[in-house]
Amino acid sequence: MEEGPVTVIGGAGRIGRRIVSRLRERGVPVRVTTRDVRRSRSAVPGDVPLAHADVREPASLAPPLRGCAAVVFSVEPGTAGSGPDRPETTMFQGVRHVLDAVGPAAHVVLVSQIYVTRADHPQNRYGRMLDWRLAGEELIRARGGPYTIVRPSWLTDSRGAGEAVRLEQGDTGDGRICRDDVADACVRALSTPAAIGTTFEMYNVAGPSATDWDTLFARLRPDGAVAGRRPRINGTEVPDVGAHTPR
């Protein structure tokens, strides 16, 4: 990762605040953006800069993203089929707006989810959420800069006794993952070259509780070596995901 602060978009959320905590523990300068500064202040340490920004509003992103070495995008989409909170506005248009605002060398870490390549999964009934998440992933891959795409399984607040972390690729599995492990993966990816240019799913499975992130990341295949479907909305391939041109 280049020298400079890390901006956590959605850093007051349940995963985001864990990411912020781990970055601070490692001595990494961190900024947080949120849609509602007043409501989020209690969830963010007082010494962490907190700025209003909405990924749906491009002009709001420039100040908090200026000069950052990395961005972690940890935003929960709405589920409506129409209106300003539909998944398209955050997970596709919002990702595009962030890529427009961030520097070309910044490492972008996207928190996505499993199932995004499974268009017939029930979650896709909610505003085509899976399709738009996948389309946002494609924008990041097409950007040309460093990135890591993290696909958590069903989220929990704690890991069970005697459980380990497993990373998979190809989006064929199912299961659950602790939010702490997702936060660890996002932060470790920023300092692990083997994580750059990869997409992976995360699960908790039976095994030793200690996590060797270097080994887990070293086993990953770079994107392009992993098969997956192209995003389609209402039967039509999402336009313009193959070429992101910063404005």
TrEMBL record:
Location of the region described as Disordered in the Swiss-Prot/TrEMBL record: 228-247
Source species of the chain: Catenuloplanes niger
Protein name as annotated: Uncharacterized protein YbjT (DUF2867 family)
All residue ranges annotated as the NAD(P)-binding domain in the record: 10-193
